[in-house]
Amino acid sequence: EPEVTQTPSHQVTQMGQEVILRCVPISNHLYFYWYRQILGQKVEFLVSFYNNEISEKSEIFDDQFSVERPDGSNFTLKIRSTKLEDSAMYFCASSLSQGDWTEAFFGQGTRLTVV
Amino acid sequence: QKEVEQNSGPLSVPEGAIASLNCTYSDRVSQSFFWYRQYSGKSPELIMSIYSNGDKEDGRFTAQLNKASQYVSLLIRDSQPSDSATYLCAVNNPILTGGGNKLTFGTGTQLKVEL
């Protein structure tokens, strides 16, 4: 069964360092997303990406964050200068289409720990 | 601010019983709703989607939607210990410009199925 894959599963980084989280969406999907979940809190939307452009971003997704689809398969989230409060699980998701009846499928997540 | 509300629980039910999980949402124009299951430390796993008022059944799971009351529920029949997890209610909001969808999640209800 097709799935969204994320690497690494766990990343530890020092405050101020740059990190890149990687995702391979389901191959025929066209819409890509990043969500995050701080420990014990809700899953929160960060950004959606379609046709090589950001289609929407949340207020969490500030200038420290960027996304890229560098080739035909990978989708990355970069955090330029990590802060302690960036520690969270980051989930990549993808969907085949847009519209009310679209289902989004999540990767297994990357646990980011900023020390 | 679009909100999705769930009782955080824990909801404890004996094995074999029916578990009933509830969710309310604030955005009256929302059209599609999802239930995800999340095991501790894992990613959300889609288990049900519902778009029309009424009931939708899939195996031991039944989703119920009442748009007039802005209420979604999930029933799990014949609950098993393996159903013990956090159940996340998510409301879909299509991104009108640029494409894609944005899920707004509730905090989740922790379900414990006891032997």
Please give a handful of descriptors for the protein shown.
heterodimer, A: 115 residues, mainly beta, seven-stranded mixed β-sheet, four-stranded antiparallel β-sheet, 11 strands, 0% helix, globular, B: 115 residues, six-stranded mixed β-sheet, five-stranded antiparallel β-sheet, 56% strand
Question: How would you describe this structure to a colleague?
Answer:
- The complex is a heterodimer of chains A (115) and B (115).
- Chain A has 115 residues and is an all-beta fold.
- Chain A contains no helices and eleven strands.
- The mean pLDDT of chain A is 93.
- By secondary structure, chain B is mainly β.
- Chain B has strands spanning 4-5, 11-14, 19-25, 32-38, 45-50, 54-58, 61-66, 71-76, 85-94, 101-105, 109-114.
- In chain B, strands 2, 4, 5, 9, 10 and 11 form a six-stranded mixed beta sheet that branches. A five-stranded antiparallel beta sheet of chain B has the order 1-3-8-7-6, with no helix packed on it.
- In chain B, β6 and β7 form a beta hairpin.
- The mean pLDDT of chain B is 94.
- The A-B interface holds A 31, 33, 35, 41-45, 48-51, 53-56, 89, 91, 95, 98-109, 111 and B 31-32, 34, 36, 41-46, 49, 51, 88, 90, 92, 94-95, 97-108.
Largest interface: A-B, 32 and 29 residues
Strand content of chain B: over 45%
Chain oligomer state: heterodimer
**Category from helices, strands and their pairing of chain B:** mainly beta
Uncertain regions of chain B: pLDDT < 50 for 5+ in a row? none
Residue-averaged pLDDT of chain A: 93
Q: Average the pLDDT over all residues of chain B and give the rounded result.
A: 94
Return Rg of chain A in Å: 13 Å
Envelope shape of chain A: globular
Helix content class of chain B: under 10%
The gross shape of chain B turns out to be globular
What is the tally of helical segments of chain B? 0
Distance between the termini of chain A: 36 Å
Q: Strand-residue fraction of chain A?
A: over 45%
